[in-house]
Amino acid sequence: MRRHRNVKIVATLGPASSDRATIRALYDAGADVFRLNMSHGTHADIAARHATIREVEAEVGRPIAILADLQGPKLRVGTFARGAEEIAPGAAFRLDLDPAEGDATRVCLPHPEIFAALRPGASLLVNDGKIRLGVDRCGADFAECTVLVGGTISNRKGVNVPDVVLPLAALSAKDRTDLEFACDLGVDWLALSFVQRPEDVDEARALVGNRAAIMSKIEKPAAIKDFDAILAASDGIMVARGDLGVELPVHSVPPIQKRLVNAARAAAKPVIVATQMLESMIESPMPTRAEVSDVATAIYEGADAVMLSAESAAGRYPVEAVSTMDHVALEVEADPAHHALIAASRHVERHTIADGIVAAAREIAESTEIKAICCFTQSGTTATLVARERPRVPILALTPLVGTARRLCLAWGTHCAVVPPQERFKGAVLQAVRVAREGGFAELTDKVVVTAGVPFNVQGTTNILRVAPCDERLIQRSEPG
Question: Which CATH class is domain 84-160?
């Protein structure tokens, strides 16, 4: 069950990685979480990939997390009479609700909600920011603009509106259908696109209930401004750097990434760094040095996971891309500077008994010959609190709930195991040392730290810490009850 690194790898499945052999190869290469992109493929395609992942999970005997990524609202221009037009910097260009085909002076933008929010001076970005328009005058059904950055504009290219909060829900009609489908399938995480405010997360939560954990994708300037409230409403965070780099100055993205990672870690909520991490491996078997450095930076910052998108979904070298991430992670985490940076960034306010227990577990583990921290958990909260501490020893998350085990596959440093429910602490300790030994984390002569809550099987009761020998005979003699 053991991975020899702490950061997790998320691999997106797609046309290049849908068959069972490839999915198993991706797992063997290091994938801990599989992402199902609801923007592409039919429900039948998604269901088939989900079923295959669960078959691989049963085969390897280790929980695997599945993340369904909702598409979110898509804002696009209409069509052009000639299919495309060249617009020059300084030229006038109009967007409106007229469905007539466009030309070099105008095109339909069939989104009245955009016009309702626009103000003079706002920017409109077309085709991933390759074209930039400045709004001079606007009304309920039009925007007269000046072309700030020109280029070729063509049919149905995407539009970004970075300067305003759009009066749009994060969930489109398609998203609502996909959400129910994914929850019925039994995915572990739902990634929510187009998040602008915490109410977007609350809306999704009301539909999802406790069927899946909710991950908010941070991809819009409005989400940056309201990040603390969005983080509080979410179970996890995805730093979607591609869209952030379109809607914000590209040089602002690295410090934003660092801030979001630190904030999510302080809140004990998993955070994924995503988009274009090994982009060149879509076509090449080798990444660029810059891409390797990019992955390494996310690991040095303490991200819970790094993600592959097109590299594993549609690229020519999906398994090699996962293997590359795995090798980078192993190298970075072996660097003494990594330990120093992680320790230096450990700024956590501790207010609860559970906070104190997990902090003590890390201190004991790092100052003695402890081989692992074993935590019994119902909801996964104890395990994510331990992961927030970023200990130098492995974290064994033991739970009777397979859903909890799967969700924790995304948390830094956790090795998840489904175990029988426990009623007494001695049984929990015995179970912990057995898992530690069977998983190759400890030998008979070693010791582990065990954390749990009494009474058992009650969420939020972490209140016990025990240093336990891995020799069950010693436990039987020394552990009361």
Answer: mainly beta
Has 35 been annotated as catalytic? yes
Domain map (residue ranges) of the chain? 8-72+169-335, 84-160, 353-478
Which residue of the set 3, 157, 217, 362 is catalytic?
Answer: 217
Looking at residue 376, its amino acid is F
pLDDT digits (tens, 9 = 90+) for 37-49: 999 989 999 999 9
- The Cβ of residue 267 has, within 10 Å, a number of other Cβ atoms equal to 18
Would you call 2 a catalytic residue per the annotation? no
Q: Is 176 a catalytic residue?
A: no
**DSSP-derived 3-state class of residue 11:** strand
* C-beta neighbour count of 477 within 10 angstroms: 9
Q: How many CA atoms lie within 13 A of 433 on its CB side?
A: 23
Residue 18: both structure tokens together: 């849908």
- Is residue 466 among the annotated active site residues? no
Q: Are 383 and 450 in contact (CB under 8 A)?
A: no
Other residues' Cβ atoms within 10 Å of the Cβ of residue 140: 9
Active-site residue identified among 20, 54, 76, 434: 76
- Does the pLDDT value for residue 458 go beyond 80? no
| Cross-strand partners of 123 | 134
Alpha-carbon distance of 153 to 95, in angstroms, equals: 12
Catalytic choice (275, 384, 399, 451): 275
**Residue 427: how many CB atoms within 10 A of its CB?**
16
Q: Give the CA distances from residue 40 to residues 12, 70, 176, 178, in Å, rounded to whole numbers and listed in that order.
A: 11, 10, 16, 11
310-319 pLDDT, tens digit per residue, is 999 999 999 9
Contacting residues for 210 by C-beta, under 8 A, at least 6 apart: none
Catalytic residue among 3, 24, 35, 220: 35
CATH top-level class of 8-72+169-335: alpha beta
Q: Using an 8 Å Cβ cutoff, are 211 and 183 in contact?
A: yes
Query: What's the sign of the alpha-carbon dihedral 163, 167, 169, 174?
Result: negative
Tokens of 238: 């995805």
Q: Report pLDDT for 426.
A: 87
Architecture of domain 353-478 in CATH? 3-Layer(aba) Sandwich (3.40)
**Alpha helix positions (H), 109-167:** 112-117
